[in-house]
DNA sequence: ACAAAAATAGAGCGAACGTTCGTTTTATGT
DNA sequence: ACATAAAACGAACGTTCGCTCTATTTTTGT
């Protein structure tokens, strides 16, 4: 298990190529943490734990394990998900599962690792934009896109952080605080440069972060009908609607009078 | 276990007396769900489950059980809290615990019951105010005050809802949706009466609710220093600061141009 | 002081859990 | 086609859980 996400990124330039943000469809094609690439990444980052040697088998099984974990544990939590449930859901034997992990907790640690990596990519991306407003708007967009593709991962980590080692818990809350502080500084920059006006930059920043959380924690709020979850056109529409709603709101909060 | 909060309220006029909102200190003195009254209420609402007959003992033990539950389960969740942990933390024997509950799940059900009752009180209170804005402002204030006094309860229910029976889960999300819809309607009323202006009443309403959740889910965000948690003056200041931050923000979002 | 109620300590139950390991099946290279 | 290494299997193990029960002591109300 990689303990330092930054180092891991530096060593692997595959994750350093820019991600397209022009539309969710474009993002989908360039964001590295999805599909087979995601599970290959997961395999390589946990090569010391995964006993299965051939990448082909390990990647396929990790995918089965993670997807089943999200499905089963979303019902009543990670603790109540037994590895026998997981065995049933994946169609794998207990032994096969234990050749991908060394203990149940590893699954949660892997989720935390990937979400942290995704957050790191989001943070890095924010540095590219030109104006303060563009930086805020693109940070929101990137985070919205990434947390949509990784929705089960973000959701899982939010609810299961408490059952991780304390050190990992602190890392998670630190990421949230960093996210707020990052927005806060961008806002304050804009204020001091006469681009925005607000009396409570911290509150606006916190509101943004909380609305980002709401997006992946309560999908049923925004994406109203349960059907056509996978229709790309409809999904593109939903996510862009939400992005515009958030940015319009922030624009209003930062408007000069 | 009462299955219908509304009925229980109708039968018991003690909960119908108005609650003071002029300050948190005033609220503290009139809000019924705290201290001994809270646990007495809990005892009476669960008289069919609690085997202990004398109210004096039952109330004292329920208080010990609930407080210990919040303390232990806040570390790593309700599922990982064993009743042996609870016995150690409360200083009670297994037998004594099981004379207050019939099974472990009862504890979580009691929390859900109280939080739902508190939400019901909040909802009822909202009907008193005169103008649309006063109604919004007072709803926020009431909810903020109540969820501060009952913080561990609200926190617990948010994270443990998933391990409750499905019927209870739906009830919880319904309460959240009702809360959003209630704010949405108040906003729309204000808009149609020319008091406010906004193009997305739903988004504003949702933001309010999400910021209310943030208050009791992440106390470390707003109440910065860990010390003096119980200093009433400092607490009054903190909560009023947050209330003003939220209402200022909502005011800005609903301002006519 | 005395009967009733409450609390105690702890042994014990069956079920379910995470984890292990000897065995069998499958895949791979020549 | 065959040998060997890798992967998958699933019964079994030891532990812990929620929960019950009993014998005994403490506290309470009158």
Give a brief description.
2 copies of one chain form a homodimer. Chain A is mainly α and 257 residues long.
> How many separate helices of chain A?
13
Low-confidence stretches of chain A: 1-11
Indicate the overall shape of chain A. elongated
Annotation, overall tally of beta strands of chain A: 0
Highest-level CATH class of the domain at 111-253 in chain A: Mainly Alpha
Level of helix content of chain A? over 70%
Give the CATH superfamily of the domain at 111-253 in chain A: Tetracycline Repressor, domain 2
Q: Give the CA-CA distance, first to last residue of chain A.
A: 51 Å
Overall average pLDDT of chain A: 91
- Greatest interface (CB-CB under 8 A), with counts per chain: A-B, 29 and 28 residues
Radius of gyration of chain A: 19 Å
Helices and strands of chain A: which structural class?
mainly alpha
CATH topology of the domain at 111-253 in chain A: Tetracycline Repressor, domain 2
Annotated CATH architecture of the domain at 111-253 in chain A: Orthogonal Bundle
Major β-sheet of chain A, in short?
none
Q: Oligomeric state of the chains?
A: homodimer
What is the string of SSEs of chain A from the N terminus onward? Answer: HHHHHHHHHHHHH
As a percent range, the share of strand residues of chain A is under 5%
Would you give an account of this structure?
The structure is a homodimer of 257-residue chains. Chain A has helices spanning 5-11, 24-30, 35-45, 55-76, 83-90, 94-97, 104-126, 132-149, 151-160, 166-192, 201-217, 219-222, 232-253. Chain A has 257 residues and is mainly α. Chain A is built from 13 helices and no strands. The first copy, chain A, is elongated. Chain A has a domain at 111-253: Tetracycline Repressor, domain 2 (Orthogonal Bundle). Chain A binds a DNA duplex (30 and 30 nucleotides) through helix 5 and helix 6.
């Amino acid at each position: 298990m990689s303990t330092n996400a930054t180092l891991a990124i530096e060593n692997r330039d595959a994750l350093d190529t820019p991600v397209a943000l022009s539309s969710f469809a474009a993002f989908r094609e360039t964001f590295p943490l999805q599909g087979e690439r995601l599970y290959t990444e997961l395999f390589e980052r946990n090569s010391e734990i995964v006993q299965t040697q051939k990448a082909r088998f390990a990647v396929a099984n990790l995918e089965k394990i993670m997807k089943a974990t999200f499905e089963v544990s979303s019902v009543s939590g990670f603790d109540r998900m037994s590895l026998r449930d997981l065995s049933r859901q994946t169609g794998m034997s207990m032994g096969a599962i234990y050749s991908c992990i060394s203990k149940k907790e590893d699954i949660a640690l892997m989720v935390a690792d990937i979400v942290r990596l995704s957050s790191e990519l989001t943070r890095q991306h924010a540095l590219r934009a030109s104006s303060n407003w563009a930086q805020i708007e693109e940070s929101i967009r990137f985070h919205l896109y990434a947390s949509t593709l990784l929705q089960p991962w973000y959701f899982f980590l939010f609810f299961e952080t408490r059952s991780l080692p304390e050190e990992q818990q602190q890392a998670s809350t630190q990421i949230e605080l960093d996210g707020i502080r990052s927005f806060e500084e961008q806002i304050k920059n804009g204020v001091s440069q006469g681009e925005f006006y607000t009396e409570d930059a911290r509150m606006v920043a916190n509101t943004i972060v909380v609305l980002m959380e709401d997006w992946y924690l309560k999908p049923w709020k925004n994406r109203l009908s349960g059907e056509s979850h996978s229709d790309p056109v409809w999904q593109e529409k939903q996510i862009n609607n939400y992005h515009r709603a958030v940015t319009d709101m922030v624009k209003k909060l930062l408007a000069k009078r």
